């Protein structure tokens, strides 16, 4: 492979990986801290993309839509936590799977009622709607680079939030021992609601950022759901750092899988998962 | 006019099961028919999921034709048995069995998804019931698995893209790259394209495949840029088509390496694709602004009835009803005279909104393939890319 092309492919892989991280980070937070297997995570991604579509049209600006969308996603997350999720913390995983699967069906049906079954597109914001030439035939869309930058900023922000702030300390405490944290005066109910809302907002934000380069279509959430679970499992359940490393690994594996071994491209990511789990069953950064 | 909608969805089925438990007496069936029972038309189509809009367009147009005929075909009332196949191949055989053997439909119309069609073909080949395919391009349905009772009013996958190679060659593209999803339909499309393109002397320098339904195209776009072919031919539909066309443009490839495809690339997706799709040339058996009186009339009536513009899927559904009408008329509505009915449908010429087409001996349309160009939000008719294109129907025993 030509070295320039190789570098471009690395860029492709990292860029895809960063977007995966954004979706998967919310999933791993909810899974790791609340202990909930949230199958509806992909639906939040889809809701985000559809919100970007509607709000960009209404507000006339993608960035305003992004801000309004995040606020709406946080509200949606809090409402859902209050309505259903809080009854699941003490329950078996089976109940969680059943309920969140039910949520997928509800969100799909609502999507169909509100937005219909057509495919939609979202305009790339004008400020970033140009490409930088990389070779004589290929250019790179600046929006994609900006998207990666935003994902990196969010990764850094999450690291800071969880490791360096008081809220992060409470979140970590709550994930280690719920009862102990509570008896130390931490309002667990409120904390859990905040974490769930954060998870929903991350998924929706990923959907909104992806909307201009992806398209907005029915069932789009289910496609990212599976790969997000792969990221979470490879990285180690509940580890945001793990999700970051795993997402980049998967981005690269997917990209080079398609180029080098197209016959088995669909399997490459899962082979990677199998290999990692054989080596470390708890995931790269998972707690044993 | 007695048109009864009897939608057998999961929900209804559960309600029905509940009702059945309450009145489980076999004597609770007070009715007897004084006159010939209505003709049972089974509509097994997707009404939920990605292809829901296609299923609805086919259903609408089918019912439009029946309504134009006063609600009757060959003097018989029509009763619809509607079943949502969810485009779910795993449920295809069960669903087809239910509608054919339990509901005992007189004719089965369906479906959209090729994988589901494969299951339906298996069931109708065994039962012998008249089956009209209003979309799925699954080649074997009118090829290796062709049967006297299976007819298609849409296309074979091969047929949608075979003319494209010739078009590209005439535009001066001596080499090209091919890209699509790796699944059965993608491979059939590739076969149809390659045959046409290589026959006129074109060379496919690279064929690229990505797992279905993955839509991360960047890696393969980079490969295309490195290979520098004269042009790119592809097959994508729906959400994947929107994303591919936009990504292709954003990668700066569109201006340097022209993109071609069959019509699914730009059908029902133009609003979402926006500027990225402008100027793209595609081939298909239908187009916007065809100068055909029948098409104008159909578009007007459809728009009046449903407050929607019809598309290629609606045309195929309309023709399914036309074909059924012709078969029924030949036997005065008596579907038991199957042999005579099938004979009347074979070789018949259908006056379709897409232009007149003839039913081949393998029971697939012999139809013109149009070259279309994206202008605004229309796939505008450019020229006839291939007059009366007939699917070769490899392996079909009815040709012997």
Q: What overall form of chain A do the CA principal axes indicate? A: globular
Number of helices of chain B: 13
Oligomer: heterodimer
Tell me the structural class of chain B.
Answer: alpha/beta
Average pLDDT over all residues of chain B: 90
Number of strands of chain A: 2
Percent in helix of chain B: 25-40%
Poorly predicted regions of chain B are: 1-33
Short description:
The complex is a heterodimer of chains A (288) and B (400). Chain A contains eleven helices and two strands, in the order ααααββααααααα.
Topology at a glance:
The complex is a heterodimer of chains A (288) and B (400).
Chain A: H1 3-34, H2 41-59, H3 62-83, H4 93-115, E1 131-133, E2 139-141, H5 142-164, H6 166-176, H7 178-183, H8 188-210, H9 220-235, H10 240-260, H11 265-279
Chain B: E1 5-7, H1 10-22, E2 39-45, H2 52-68, E3 72-73, E4 76-84, H3 92-102, E5 107-109, H4 114-127, E6 130-133, E7 150-152, H5 157-161, H6 164-170, E8 175-182, H7 184-199, E9 203-211, H8 218-227, E10 231-235, H9 238-250, E11 259-262, H10 270-273, E12 281-284, H11 293-306, H12 312-330, H13 338-345, E13 349-352, E14 355-359, E15 365-375, E16 378-389
Parallel strand pairs in B: 1-4, 2-4, 2-5, 5-6, 6-7, 8-9, 8-10, 10-11, 11-12
Antiparallel strand pairs in B: 3-4, 12-15, 13-14, 14-15, 15-16
